[in-house]
Every structure is written in C-alpha cells, then in structure tokens.
From TrEMBL:
High-level lineage: Bacteria, Bacillati, Actinomycetota, Actinomycetes, Propionibacteriales
Source organism (scientific name): Solicola gregarius
Residues included from the entire protein: 1 to 227 of 390
Domain spans labelled ABC transporter: 4-227
The entry's keywords: ATP-binding, Cell membrane, Membrane, Nucleotide-binding, Translocase, Transport
A Gene Ontology biological process term: carbohydrate transport
GO function terms (MF aspect): ABC-type transporter activity; ATP binding; ATP hydrolysis activity
GO CC term, one of those recorded: ATP-binding cassette (ABC) transporter complex, substrate-binding subunit-containing
Protein name, entry field: Sn-glycerol-3-phosphate ABC transporter ATP-binding protein UgpC
C-alpha cells in the first residue's frame, strides 16, 4: 500500500493541446480516488501514466515515496483491473489467482498455495477455486481479478471504467462490492469513470478533469454541497 503523488504532470501527444495539462494530485494511503470527467478529458492517459503504460512528458510521479517516471510497469508493483477483468478462460479460479506468482518464479508451490488460499478467503472465493471464469457471476469474476492483484501485494489498485459494460443492476451491485472490498483491504485505489453517480457513491474523494485540466478535488459531500 502506498501514497501516489503527482507533481505537475503533463502529457503531450504530438503538438496539440496537452492531453494532461499540469496536474498535481496527492492520493493518500488507503484512499479511493475517483478520476471523473467527459470522454477525452485525459482520465485514461493519467491512469496509464501512473501504471507506466504511457511516458510522462514532464512532471514527477511518486509512488510509495519512489519516483517512478523511469520505472517499467512491472517494477511499479501496481495492479490494473481491466474492464473485462482479463481472466484466463481456460484456467481455474485457483490458477487465475496463482498466475502472477507462478510468472514471477519467486515462490514455491507451498507459498503460492498459502497466498492463493489467504486471498480467496479474504475475497470469499474459497468455494469456487476449481471453477472456470465462464461459470462465475460478474461479481465473482471481479473478485478473482482483485485476488490476482492482492496475492502480489500490489501497492495500489487501478480501475479503468471497470463497470461500463454491465447493465444498471449489476453495475450497482458491483459498485457496492468494490467499495466493500477496497475498504476491507485498505488498498490505495484510483478509479476512472465518466459516470457521476459512480464517482459520488464510490469515492473517498473525486478529482474532476476537463480538457486535461484538474478542475476540482473534493469529497462527494463537498461536491453535493458546492457543485
Ligand atoms: P478519457 O480517458 O478521459 O476519455 P483520454 O486520456 O483517452 O481521455 O484522452 C485524452 C486526450 O488525448 C484526447 O484528446 C485523446 O484524443 C488524446 N489521446 C489519447 N491517446 C492518444 C494517443 N495515443 N495519441 C494521440 N492522442 C491521444
Ligand atoms: P474445490 O474448489 O473443488 O473445493 P480445492 O480448491 O479446495 O477444491 O482443492 C483441493 C486441493 O487441490 C487443495 O489442496 C489445493 O491446494 C489443490 N488445488 C486446487 N486447484 C489447484 C490447482 N489448479 N493447482 C494446484 N493445486 C490445486
């Protein structure tokens, strides 16, 4: 778990208007920060710069006290949870969660087993370890994706519009689920959405972007009272 500090972050594609224009934002340890704004305002670009999938034109990105501008994504120890959860359909829940540990080759089978069981207990997936993703509910798939993140002891979770493909009912359920798990795990989280309801119900704080500029950072309560 870690703080995320952004100091004067700029992203310039070509020679147009900057996609991200001088954003400074501090995210506290354990905080769930929402990045919200209309399509094209720079949310995904900012998230991708946190993860390391996009170069930073200027400014400093500091995660857990370390400047990460020049660190490869794998060395940032962050967990990105994608819209479709990117689970491996041919692997069981157990193997999906174990996958990053097997990849790293740092862990014995016993250690992997202990970590997978710990994560699946936390996420209430113990009963489903032998299933394949196709046989899980949307909420269970989401938990498997988070399981894969927590076995690695990721410093932070990053969500890019994870619910935008779901119908309204499931979206509401998943929102509740994400909020509950995020609080239970206490993991610093950055969550991108264009949905204001989602922003207001999920966020500890909400960062509002417009045309690459950070317009406002406030708690949902403050935003209700002073929109
Ligand atoms: P959002 O996630 O808020 O919809 P993006 O971060 O995807 O916004 O995009 C911000 C701006 O940067 C947009 O104007 C978009 O067209 C531009 N942009 C995003 N990715 C690229 C790219 N790879 N090359 C050039 N322009 C890009
Ligand atoms: P179920 O989900 O059917 O109740 P469990 O997941 O409890 O079954 O599995 C029983 C045993 O098999 C455990 O000792 C567990 O460590 C092991 N196990 C389960 N799935 C795998 C797997 N894909 N790879 C390695 N060991 C596994």
């Amino acid at each position: 778990m870690a703080t995320i500090e952004m100091n004067n972050i700029v992203k310039q594609y070509g020679d147009g208007f900057p996609a991200v224009n001088d954003i400074s934002l501090d995210i506290a340890d354990g905080e769930l920060m929402i990045l919200v704004g209309p399509s094209g305002c720079g949310k995904s670009t900012l998230l991708r710069m946190i993860v390391g999938l996009e170069d930073i034109t200027s400014g400093d990105m500091v995660i857990g006290g370390t400047r990460v501008n020049d660190l490869a994504p794998r060395d940032r120890n962050l967990a990105m949870v994608f819209q479709n959860y990117a689970l491996y359909p041919h692997l069981t829940v157990y193997e999906n969660i174990a996958f990053p540990l097997r990849l790293s080759k740092e862990f014995s089978n016993d250690e992997i087993d202990r970590k997978v069981r710990e994560a699946s207990a936390t996420l209430e997936l113990d009963e489903h370890l032998s299933r394949k993703p196709a046989n899980l509910s949307g909420g269970q798939r989401q938990r498997v994706a988070m399981g894969r993140a927590i076995v690695r002891d990721a410093q932070a979770f990053l969500f890019d519009e994870p619910l935008s493909n779901l119908d309204a009912k499931l979206r509401g359920q998943m929102r509740t689920e994400i909020s509950r798990l995020q609080k239970k795990l206490g993991v610093t989280t950055v969550y991108v959405t264009h949905d204001q309801t989602e922003a207001m119900t999920l966020g500890d704080r909400v960062a509002v972007l417009k045309k690459g500029i950070l317009q406002q950072v406030a708690t949902p309560r403050e935003l209700y009272e002073h929109p």
